[in-house]
Amino acid sequence: MPEIVPVAWEAGTPLSAESRATLRRAADILLRGGLVAIPTETVYGLAAVATDAAAVARIFAAKGRPASNPLIVHVSGVDMLRPLVATWPEEAERVTAHHWPGPLTVVVPASDAVPDVVRAGGTTVALRSPEHPVTASLLAILGKPLAAPSANRSGLISPTTAAHVAASLGDAVDLILDGGTCDCGIESTVLDLSGAVPRVLRPGPLDRQTLEVSLHGSIEGPEATSSTVARSPGLLPRHYAPKAELELATDGRERVHTLLAADKRVGWITRGAVAATAAAASASKGRLHHLSLPDDPAGYARHLYASLHALDDLGVEAIVVDRPPGDEAWHAVQDRLTRASYRE
Ligand code: AMP
Ligand code: MG
Questions:
Q1: Could you tell me the fold of the domain covering 245-340?
Q2: Torsions phi, psi for 113 (to 5 deg)
Q3: Is the CB of 129 under 6 A from ligand 1?
Q4: Atom 19 (ligand 1): residue with closest C-alpha?
């Protein structure tokens, strides 16, 4: 098993000498071409120095990630990204001034300093400045950008705890920095600023309207068209998936009853204070595991992946998820659940 090192932190307080010593050790591993799992406010990342093509290639091998899927490069701020971009559009300046550090990734034209392997052969680079104090401090100590996709095997659920990382990647990672449970719990919003019009490629914790206000302009939404897939190759229809078959249900209770009657072991994810009925529980003979998530988009997102991990660990065969509301605020959650339930 990989080494998991807890890094104590408190919001608004400088890191302790002990935490900083741990981060210097992590920086040494990275500078020697190693892989370190890092806590961020979205999900845990699997990091390598972004300008070290050989180290970045190890990320793809560790994850089993297709070479066509580009990586997000994490920077401590706008100063660190200057050498990585061919141009830094005015829109990028405006929107990052509002939302960095935070769960926003911007896609802009790349410079030659970004290795091909990071941009999957494309001409753009995706950039983000993370807010999590552990990773923000690591970037400051390292003084170099970090390429980091989510720290899980490709196609499976992203990790929101250090234990999830260890279970998914094992010894493929040299060190795991444990900075606690991720606050957002889902991946960053990806905003493409390299085309004629700004466009959300992946919905996330920051919604389109919020970004439009800080951009002073309109943003096109994500569309499930082939052109979007070509622009953001990582956005495969099936992604973020648990091992169990996941289905979105308009009448979850009914669906759960049907599956239990067919002798299945079932996980059921509802919103708010909905108790599994006594009838369902007694009919299940322990084959029903019911989890209720907060009935607000941010709270729901924070717990979603951990719930899917937990149900997989319980060995359920099917996961029924009560379909969340269709309004814009739930867009990112809808997106992840739709991809998790996708079947060829
Ligand atoms: P993850 O694997 O969760 O880190 O997600 C990274 C995602 O960011 C990828 O799957 C892409 O969808 C997106 N991305 C990264 N780099 C680019 C890029 N240069 N252009 C468009 N999308 C990108
Ligand atoms: Mg991922």
A1: Rossmann fold (3.40.50)
A2: -70, -15
A3: no
A4: 125
